[in-house]
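Case study B.
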Amino acid sequence: MTAGAAGSAGATRSAGPAGTTATPRTPRRTPARTRPLRWAPLVPATVLLLLFLGGPLVYCVGIAFTDAQLTGQESASFVGLANFRHAFGDPAFRNAVVLTLVFTVVSSVLGQNTLGLALAGLLRRASRPVRTLTGALVITAWVLPEIVAGFLLYTFFERRGTLNALLAWLHLPAQNWLFGLPILAVSFANVWRGTAFSMLIYSAALAGIPTEISESAEVDGAGGLRRLWHITLPMIRRSVGTNLMLNTLQTLSVFGLIWVMTRGGPGGRSQTLPVFMYDQAFTKSLIGYGTAVALLLLVVGALFSAVYLRLLREEV
Amino acid sequence: MPLPRRPHARRRAPSRRTRHRPAADAALLAVAVAFAAPLVWLVLSSLDARATLRVRLPRSPTLDNFSAVWTDEITFTPMLNSLLICGGATLLTVVCAALAAYPLSRFHARFARPYLLTILFSTCLPITAVMVPVYALFVRVDLIDTQYGTALFLAAAQLPFAIWLMKNFMDSVPRALEEAAWTDGASWGQTLLRVILPLMGPGVGVVAIYTFIMMWGNFFVPFMLLLSPEQLPASVSIFTFFGNYGAIAFGELAAFSVLYSTPVLALYLLISRRLGSGFALGGAVKG
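Model:
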């Protein structure tokens, strides 16, 4: 609304010197001569997106209902919902769904989100050297290529690795993390890798809270936890929503990290949906089935995206 | 200079800022140690000729690991492939994004809002999930195992976010100069190239570097779309290094990881301030 008003104000201003007669119904800022052509710059991006994102999406819907396999593409035939029925009856698929939920809740909602908020809060109170050091380390973990991060965390969690060395030093019992609790190990790995994102979002959000508000609450005698619950969280709730959505979507598509650390094993105990999808499509050569799983993942992703868009509605 | 002064600006409550400090520092240092542990292993092992899985100080620090991986086959070819694929894709993304962002930022039309919403929607889609159909499609149209095909897909995958970021940067460029250029009879192309892009130079830099970092680290896309070993970028070649060697040479792997990660860490430093301070991903992250 404000943009429209500003636009019409600009139109009256620019129409004068340009000498064009301003027609009453058009709050437009440029001479009309360029009108059809001025959207032409959208063409390259649109073509690229349609060909390489739109195309695969349509194709995905197409082959999810066939029995396409890696070998003998021509023999693929329409099988209706068979792939989906197969998926819901497949214990390995249900296992992957449960593991994906665990992975998402532990690493994204509980891990990255909470730790990110805590870090953002602490960074504001810490002394400068500590703030710089911690911020740099957390962000380095985020900027490192995924494959390097996966490899580093593999060595960290491995039976003979750094974590067990630290535990032994603290006189705590060692664990075979990648074998005993692989889903927890990869979840922690994802926390290590992804917390910086939440930290940056929450740092920006906390910086936007007027200090008078939290200070007056403190003067009124509100303790730390009550301030957090009644003042801080309500004021940054939009950031919390945004962050949770984006984190969840990123976590849903984590593949490289898990693939490097465990390859979904042992025995499928860290096989989240992307890894399951890959395994079905390429190890077992069932492209049709793998694509059906991909389609389910896309639908979940699309639902989250739609919620995210609703959260941002007023901003666009 | 301005940072240390900050506490004094809030003289009214000088104790509050300082009271929590030791506790906050201690907590942060604990987190820092946890985040540092894997990184310490990386650095120490790359300097240790007989590195193992366990973190330890090398007996005699050496650069042997680096010279061992400093060959065409292990380092230069994959890095060059990465540079070609990601550099080409970044260039394509930035050009397309700048072109697309211009009308989206400057003009109003009925379809602009749905278009932007679609763009924003596709920034969120889990790209991982599209990869199986993309593979099948690339086999069909014979783009599989080609570097330009991979670059085209990478460009398309990063494009929605790049358009969004670019549009936000462009929105902040005032229109007065542009209107002057129009009055002088400049076309939109001249206006974009001569007036707007120079004004938002740092913004274009952020978009380009961010896009490049994302692609440089991407593993799954080239892992799926490239097959022949001589075409693989560093993100995938490091995996074959790790996965297929009988006994993993941890020191060399660490040295290669350092070489492979350094460019993106350095690039991130360049944009960290602009990306970090206004961490307005999608311009949407306001309290």
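The two ends of chain B are 27 Å apart (CA to CA). The remaining cases will be described in the next quarterly update.
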